[in-house]
């Protein structure tokens, strides 16, 4: 059973799956870079009421599962994270610069998908049957 989060005025469970891809899909992410990118994510996340629950990577992208609050400005967090992680990774792993085009580490695009505990069809059916007598 999933535990609901709460604040002073609400109860919620907002879970997201996000994917960041390197610029031009350059194959530059290894275990060390992924570990550092994850550390940066975890250090910035509390400022935006975000909690990382799962992290993994391939050579050209990272997958992140995280929880957020209703007041979380996701676009601001994403911009802050991508900017900070790009700057720090290039500084701490100078060998990466040789594989990148100009200064960009991450692609401008990203994938953000909301993830829920129930399948969509179950939720649709629940909403459709509200107000019906049993």
From TrEMBL:
<protein>
    <submittedName>
        <fullName>Transposase</fullName>
    </submittedName>
</protein>
<dbReference type="InterPro" id="IPR036515">
    <property type="entry name" value="Transposase_17_sf"/>
</dbReference>
<dbReference type="GO" id="GO:0004803">
    <property type="term" value="F:transposase activity"/>
</dbReference>
<dbReference type="GO" id="GO:0003677">
    <property type="term" value="F:DNA binding"/>
</dbReference>
<dbReference type="InterPro" id="IPR002686">
    <property type="entry name" value="Transposase_17"/>
</dbReference>
<dbReference type="GO" id="GO:0006313">
    <property type="term" value="P:DNA transposition"/>
</dbReference>
<dbReference type="Pfam" id="PF01797">
    <property type="entry name" value="Y1_Tnp"/>
</dbReference>
<feature type="domain" description="Transposase IS200-like">
    <location>
        <begin position="11"/>
        <end position="130"/>
    </location>
</feature>
């Amino acid at each position: 059973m999933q535990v609901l989060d709460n604040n002073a005025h609400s109860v919620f469970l907002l879970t997201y799956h996000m994917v960041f891809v390197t610029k031009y899909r350059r194959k530059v992410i290894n275990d060390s870079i992924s570990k550092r990118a994850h550390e940066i994510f975890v250090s910035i996340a509390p400022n935006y009421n975000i909690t990382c629950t799962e992290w993994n990577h391939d050579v050209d992208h990272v997958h992140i599962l995280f929880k957020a609050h209703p007041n979380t400005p996701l676009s601001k967090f994403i911009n802050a994270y991508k900017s900070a992680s790009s700057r720090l990774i290039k500084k701490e792993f100078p060998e990466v610069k040789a594989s990148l085009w100009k200064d960009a580490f991450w692609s401008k695009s990203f994938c953000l998908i909301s993830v829920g505990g129930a399948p969509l069809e179950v939720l649709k059916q629940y909403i459709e049957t509200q107000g019906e007598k049993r």
